[in-house]
Structures are given as C-alpha cells and as structure tokens.
Amino acid sequence: MKKSKFIRVKCPDCENLQVIFDHPSIDVKCLICGRTLAEHTGGKGEIKAEIVEVLE
Questions:
Q1: Is 50 annotated as a binding residue?
Q2: Looking at domain 6-55, does it have CATH number 2.20.25.100?
Q3: Is residue 35 annotated as involved in ligand binding?
Q4: What gap in Å lies between CA 30 and CA 44, rounded to an integer?
Q5: How far is CA 36 from CA 6, 11, 29, in A?
Q6: 52 carries a ligand binding annotation
C-alpha cells in the first residue's frame, strides 16, 4: 500500500495548476510565479496551495 501520492495543486497567487509529490524532499515552487507550494518536513510535506485533485 502506497502512502505517498502525486497531487494537482493550484497556486494561490497566479492560479497555475501544477502536479507535485505530497512527500517532497525539497521545497516546491510554482513554475510561473515562484511562490512556495509545498515545504519539505522530513515526511509528508506541508502543502501551501489548494489541492485540486489526488492522482492515483
């Protein structure tokens, strides 16, 4: 059983949709405006954007 997933999130600043990993090993930034979408925490990341969809 997988604990980690890919998720589609929407940037709160520019509304860009981006697919990210929910357990990131580095901070994930928006490809358009550079805002931090997820911060690494050593486990499940702290998601700072709206989760639009969980991808299977």
A1: no
A2: yes
A3: no
A4: 18
A5: 17, 9, 4
A6: no
